[in-house]
């Protein structure tokens, strides 16, 4: 439910008139929402992960690999995002949400190397990253962060069958050229399966807002509505920022309308980088977790 102007004004005043700022959920300005997760939960998938982001967003990711025609670059990662019918009706008024999330996720996946997925001149692995948004309790809530983290964890758990190719070449008639064989064997032993490569190039997306002189990490919808600008920042495991995308710009309800400066933008990106690095470091514990049920990544 959208807040009234007095309620939005109260939200802004709580952030800008107190030291420290008071957020409506009690977090500090640089704190992510509590989140928990599971990995390796989908039988038959090559990798999977499930993330609960706060109490409002839940995302499930399954990874499947199949043999397909090689592309000019080698193999391929293909994103597909769907939204569960149980998601709040306001988020399904148009078909834009699944397509926009698919596009955003594909941008993240396009940073991964794919040349090693090719194993004959014409064949390569195609990695399907299938996502379902199971819960989005608040319209226009931030789904990107949960989606990117779940994808990262699912890909880190993914293994693909080992491929063997004959160590021979075939003579091309009428020529002195040799070409690699198109023959290959797929190892059916799961213990011999191999992990994906290049995942250090995979970003986790952190959202950040500027509300006058305050920088907020992982803003709620109400906080973003009183911000001058909100960005999605892609953060690599080493803390490097891979990209930024504008989510909203131009001054929110009850804000001063003050334009965000270059210095402010740099500070915002740096704050997102710190939060993203901490999140990815904390998520490593989930990969090592052997219990059942959800694991608290950030309490």
UniProtKB/TrEMBL annotation:
Molecular function as annotated in GO: mRNA 3'-UTR AU-rich region binding
Keyword Cytoplasm applies: yes
UniProt cross-references to SUPFAM superfamilies, sorted A to Z: Ribonuclease PH domain 2-like, Ribosomal protein S5 domain 2-like
Protein's cellular compartments: Cytoplasm; Nucleus, Nucleolus
Keywords on record: Cytoplasm, Exosome, Nucleus
Presence of the UniProt keyword Nucleus in the record: yes
Pfam annotation, one family: RNase_PH
InterPro entries assigned to the protein according to its UniProt record, in alphabetical order: ExoRNase_PH_dom1, ExoRNase_PH_dom2_sf, Exosome_comp_Rrp42_subfam, PNPase/RNase_PH_dom_sf, Ribosomal_Su5_D2-typ_SF
Main location: cytoplasm
GO BP annotation list: exonucleolytic trimming to generate mature 3'-end of 5.8S rRNA from tricistronic rRNA transcript (SSU-rRNA, 5.8S rRNA, LSU-rRNA); nuclear mRNA surveillance; nuclear polyadenylation-dependent rRNA catabolic process; rRNA catabolic process; TRAMP-dependent tRNA surveillance pathway; U1 snRNA 3'-end processing; U4 snRNA 3'-end processing; U5 snRNA 3'-end processing
A single Gene Ontology CC term: cytoplasmic exosome (RNase complex)
Every Exoribonuclease phosphorolytic domain range: 31-161
Family classification: Belongs to the RNase PH family.
Name this polypeptide is given: Ribosomal RNA-processing protein 42
